[in-house]
Structure formats: structure tokens, C-alpha cells
Amino acid sequence: MTKKPESRFSNEFVKATKDRVFWTRIESWAVPGVPDLHGVCEGHSFWVELKVVDKLNTTQIGLRPHQIQWQARYSAAGGRVYNLVHRPSGRKLELFRGMTMDLELGVPVYEIPKNDEGHRMIIDFIMNDR
Fold first, then answer.
1. Is 0.85 surpassed by the pTM of this model?
2. 40 has which bridge partners?
3. Tens of pLDDT, residues 75-123
4. How far apart are CA 38 and CA 122, in angstroms?
5. Helix (H), strand (E) counts: the chain
6. What is the pLDDT of residues 35-55, one digit of tens each?
7. Are 86 and 52 in contact (CB under 8 A)?
8. Which residues, in sequence order, are CB contacts of 129 under 8 Å at separation 6+?
9. Is 70 helix (H, G, I), strand (E, B) or coil?
């Protein structure tokens, strides 16, 4: 059975960062709106929604209404949530803070090539984004 692009992306990201982050993968059908991954690193927890977007020049990352609502409520309560977007055509990763103006405008807070080192640098960014 062929894995979905987001499942492959998730496996690659977790594998490249599991030496620093304790990850729990949440199945989307279990709790609608909850992001794909919950991470704990250096005593700090955060959520990451993973998206694979084929279009290179779009500001839309494909969040569904219940995902938007969950992120808005979680962020308003002081939680940290991020949207990590892989654009296969550009071989890059884009990181957006959950429910902030950068997400609405489609301007990532961090952009890096997609490789193992890039995955680890995403974690570095998240840990310094307090």
C-alpha cells in the first residue's frame, strides 16, 4: 500500500528529529482539528500540523475549518502550534506560526531546504521562538 505524501513527510520529519523531540502522532480521524504531531523538547511542548502543498506559488496551505478553529483557540490560550509545509516542487520547508498574520498572508516565519538538516533546524527555530 502506498503511503500518502503527508504520512511520508511525517515519517521523515520524526525520524530526523527524534533524537531531540519526543513525538506523539495523532490520527486526524480521532480528534478533528488537532494537529498531526505533539512534540516535547527540553521541557517545552508544541504541536505541528504537517501539510504537503504541490503548488509553489500559493498562499493557501489547505487548513480545514476545524483545524483553523482549534489552532485559534489553542494559540489564544497561550499554546504553541506551527504549520510545517512541504512544497515538493520547490524542495523546501516553510514554517508558519499557528493562527497569526504570517499564516493569513502566506508569509512563512522560516523557510529552509527539505533535508535532514533542515528538519533539525526547524526544531531549533521552534525552541528559540518563545
1. yes
2. 22, 45
3. 999 999 999 999 887 788 999 998 776 677 777 888 888 888 889 999 9
4. 15
5. 4, 6
6. 999 999 999 999 999 999 876
7. yes
8. 80, 97, 109
9. helix
